[in-house]
Specification:
CATH class of the largest domain: Alpha Beta
Number of helices: 23
Biased composition (Polar residues): 323-340, 558-570
Distance between the termini: 61 Å
Organism: Halopiger xanaduensis (strain DSM 18323 / JCM 14033 / SH-6)
Number of domains: 4
Enzyme class: oxidoreductase
Region (Disordered): 323-347, 540-611
Strand content: 15-25%
Number of strands: 30
Shape: globular
GO cellular component, one term: membrane
Structural class: alpha/beta
Length: 717
């Protein structure tokens, strides 16, 4: 029997070690389970990670495809690559570097993300390059840079059992990060510890919380400022820490709102505000996710949560601001891919760093774009103006981006190359489809949300014509920019090149190698030497690196900011881009389901998405419709299922309606995973992070036009 192959789960960003075994005959995986020897999870695994790896749903891409006479037809890999190269090269020749856009993914390995960024920035020279990680993490990243001068959370998983307060804000780790949530819940169950959840929805995480604070959608910044105001008013500021390690607090303190007025704007009682403020006196880990980030106020709200940690001295081991990453390698994409910074978090506009990157890549420095670009929404806007061709790798923008009808229309006007493992809505529009290997079929490394790098290994072969992301990126590069990649791209050699480029940077990987990962399984950056694996960031004192002998050491902090101090934020709330009114009286918000994956390509369903509304909302809507005639939940009955249409100013989507007491009145909840949902959402973005305002827009719920439960979206009149 074939031996078990150790690897890392690519389902979410916890980074659990797995072991996998291939089927005895053919292609695929027979066994997937947690790896007891992996230091991140010690054998724990969630069912989703196992199932979505071993037995995913969705339609596999088994053959290269090209468009002929309007249809996608099978072809050879060589023909598909030549056609892709011709289209991309033609756009570069016609429009220059701005003629090609590249869209990457948090599902790529570090090596593939690095190679794609090298191709986009150093080969094509395009400013129109980004990854779908900007759609979920960019606001947190921007806030980290503002506060600390550097990206990535200060805490690690080692801090979870040491925390006494677990404040989960705008996130649902019980659904999105089950293994990590087990650690959080175990710690919160300890004596004198607690779990507080701030979320408009009574989520799976809120179900087990000691306190659930159901704020209004979009009220996060107001609530965070209300809590900080009460921290100040009740004398809970860690004045010694603030004086020793921060700056900007006096200015922020002078501008804080009245706590009760801010709480009212957030839709929260002052008693709940006081409860949160009091809980911050204990060592607190503040976790947040897309509920905070995906807003026009995402950077400001993320910064306000960091401010709570700074003001209360929660920047020591066992505490701190911990943004929760959704996609498996979002952290690696930020470090490796050159999308927002050069590898190693080198500043994009710094001349010295630009020269270092150009020299390392052996490309002319002027070829490198002057700025990181407009973000994914801005890239779509540029199609048809600057952009003539798009290369999309392991991402599904037609389903994953806001106002998806507009995205679809723009992509239809471009020469589109799609590289993916599964057939998606974006692949349906492509001129060329390159089938790529997926989990269990590729080798490389990944980086989890606590900055830990570990190996990804192939346990099974692939059918003929299926190549890895890294191989396909190299093949495109060799045809379009033949001087860029010196040799065929091999994972170990690419990682060595990447690691060398990060030497001396804030995200230093130069002390990590495949040999070291073979021995240690996982190493946390910054790792500037072969015997270094970092612990808590920015802090030097007792237990900074798990050293119990350092108990008597003095505390000190060091931040890569101009002053060497952490910075309090000054972000102010922008008006939400779309308010409810008589025509659109409900607020749509979106969230994760425990059993679904990203845009659904591995957990695809043919049924309409489920819209959850409160019983009171359902009754009120039923009374308003059909001239006062009762229509249960504002929908018509069809084979014991209740169907309706959610209508926004952009589109109309057929849904299956369920009443759910966990949803607040006046809110419609839809899952992020269904490909029709983002036809409804807004393209407005945070002005600094470029992250879209997914979590709030105005809609109405009406009966379906007929009994056809199709989930295909229609453009609103």
């Amino acid at each position: 029997m074939t031996d078990l192959v150790p690897t890392t789960c690519m389902r979410c960003a916890v980074g659990c070690g797995h072991v996998q075994r291939p089927v005895e005959q053919g292609y695929g995986l027979d066994v997937v389970r947690g790896d007891a020897s992996h230091p991140v999870n010690n054998g724990l695994a969630c069912q989703r990670g196992v199932t979505e790896t071993a037995d995913p749903d969705g339609e596999w891409l088994a053959r290269p495809l090209v468009r002929r006479d309007g249809d996608l037809v099978p072809t050879t890999l060589e023909t598909a690559l030549e056609r892709a190269a011709e289209g991309l090269e033609g756009a570069l020749d016609e429009a220059g570097p701005e003629g090609v856009a590249v869209l990457g993914s948090g599902q790529q390995t570090n090596e593939a993300a690095y190679a794609l960024g090298k191709l986009a920035r150093g080969g094509f020279g395009t400013p129109y390059y980004d990854a779908n990680t900007t759609l979920c993490m960019a606001s947190a990243v921007t806030a980290y840079y503002d506060a600390f001068g550097s990206d990535a959370p200060p805490p690690t998983y080692d801090d979870i059992p040491e925390a006494e307060t677990h404040l989960v804000w705008g996130a649902n780790p019980a659904a999105a990060h089950p293994v990590m949530f087990r650690w959080i819940n175990q710690s919160a169950d300890a004596e004198d510890s607690e779990l507080i959840v701030v979320d408009p929805i009574e989520s799976e995480t809120a179900d087990v919380a000691d306190l659930h604070v159901p704020l209004e959608p979009g009220g996060d910044l107001a609530l965070a400022r209300a809590v900080l105001a009460r921290v100040v008013e009740t004398g809970r500021v860690d004045e010694e820490f603030v004086a020793a390690a921060t700056e900007g607090f006096d200015d922020l303190r002078a501008e804080l709102p009245d706590a009760e007025a801010a709480a009212e704007r957030a839709g929260v009682s002052i008693e709940d505000v006081d409860r949160i403020a009091a809980a911050l006196e204990d060592p607190t880990l503040c976790y947040w996710g897309m509920g905070i980030n995906q807003s026009v106020n995402g950077t400001a709200a993320s910064g306000a949560l960091i401010d709570l940690c700074l003001a209360t001295g929660n920047l020591r081991p066992g505490s701190g601001p911990f943004s929760l990453t959704g996609q498996a390698n979002s952290m690696g994409t930020r470090v490796c891919s050159s999308k927002g910074t050069w590898p190693g978090h080198r500043p994009f506009d710094d001349p010295e760093h630009r020269r270092a990157v150009a020299d390392h890549w052996n490309v002319p420095e002027p070829r490198l774009p002057a700025d990181p670009g407009p973000g994914p929404v801005g890239i779509v806007d540029a199609i048809g103006d600057d952009v003539e061709a798009v290369f999309a790798v392991a991402t599904n923008p037609v389903a994953g981006m806001p106002d998806a009808t507009r995205v679809r229309e723009h992509l239809e006007d471009a020469f589109l190359v799609v590289q993916d493992a599964f057939r998606s809505e974006t692949a349906e529009l492509a001129d060329v489809v390159l089938p790529a290997a997926t989990w269990g079929e590729s080798a490389g490394t990944t980086t989890n949300m606590e900055r830990t790098v570990s190996r990804v290994r192939a346990a099974t072969e692939t059918p003929s014509g299926i190549k890895t992301d890294l191989e396909l990126i190299g093949a495109i590069g060799d045809r379009v920019v033949p001087e860029l990649f010196d040799t065929p791209l091999e994972p170990a050699a690419v990682f060595d090149e990447l690691a060398a480029l990060t030497a001396g940077t804030p995200a230093d990987l130069s002390g990590i190698s495949y040999d070291r990962l073979e021995e240690e399984a996982a190493v946390r950056w910054p790792a500037p030497a072969s015997d270094v694996s970092a612990g808590y960031r920015y802090y030097d004192g007792p237990d900074a690196n798990g050293d119990d002998d350092a108990a008597d050491a003095d505390e000190s902090w060091s931040f890569p900011t101009d002053s060497g101090r952490a910075q309090f934020s000054s972000g102010r709330a922008r008006p939400l881009p779309e308010s409810t009114d008589e025509a659109y009286p409900l607020t749509l918000t979106t969230g994760r389901r425990p059993d679904a994956y990203n845009t659904g390509v591995r957990t695809r369903e043919d049924e309409p998405p489920v819209a959850r509304v409160s019983p009171a909302t359902a009754v009120a809507l039923a009374d308003e419709l059909e001239g006062g005639e009762r229509v249960d939940a504002a929908v018509q009955d069809d084979d014991d299922a209740q169907y309706g249409r959610v209508v926004s100013r952009r589109a109309s989507v057929t849904v299956r309606v369920e009443t759910d007491e966990s949803i607040p009145d006046g809110v419609v909840w839809l899952p992020i995973h269904h490909p029709a949902v983002n036809d409804l959402t807004l393209p407005d973005v945070d002005p600094r992070s470029k992250e879209p305002n997914f979590k709030q827009c105005a809609v109405r719920l009406v009966p379906p036009r007929d009994r056809d439960a199709s989930a295909v979206a229609e453009v609103s009149a």
